[in-house]
Write a structure and sequence with these properties.
Oligomer: single chain
Radius of gyration: 29 Å
Length: 130
């Protein structure tokens, strides 16, 4: 956008804050509020403090969701507990069958040993002779 309207930085950020606290990106928040994204992005790029503040605001929904989830777990909610384990402790509690190994590598070929077992569980005896 060419040089245009001069925006009041503090008023614009104040108007965008509730949108950022809903987890919106800079682009979505600016579009929703009608502010030029390029202007706001320039302010963010030039201010470490503003960048950090917006990051904290954008993380708010995740923080609230985690707090709610953990409160349900503390109440003994089985479903919340199971969901936490399957999402956060995937190595041990994953519900899916892996088609690849760790980090996307191939699974090793299984080694299967098949032995003939008779009724008395001794290998290699023909059970039809009894």
């Amino acid at each position: 956008m060419a040089q245009g309207k001069a925006w009041d930085k503090e008023k614009v950020i104040e108007a965008l804050e509730p949108l950022f606290k809903m987890g919106m990106s800079v682009n979505k928040a600016c579009n929703a509020a009608g502010f030029p994204q390029s202007t706001v992005q320039t302010w963010i790029d030039n201010s470490e403090e503003l960048r950090l503040k917006i990051g904290i605001w954008q993380a708010e929904p995740s923080r609230l969701a985690r707090s709610s989830w953990l409160a349900k777990i503390a109440e003994g909610d089985y479903i919340a507990s199971r969901d936490w384990l399957t999402k956060k402790e995937k190595d041990e509690f994953s519900e899916r069958t892996e088609m690849t190994g760790k980090d996307g590598k191939e699974l090793p070929a299984p080694i299967i040993s098949i032995e003939r077992v008779s009724r008395n569980n001794s290998p290699d005896e023909d059970s039809s002779t009894e």
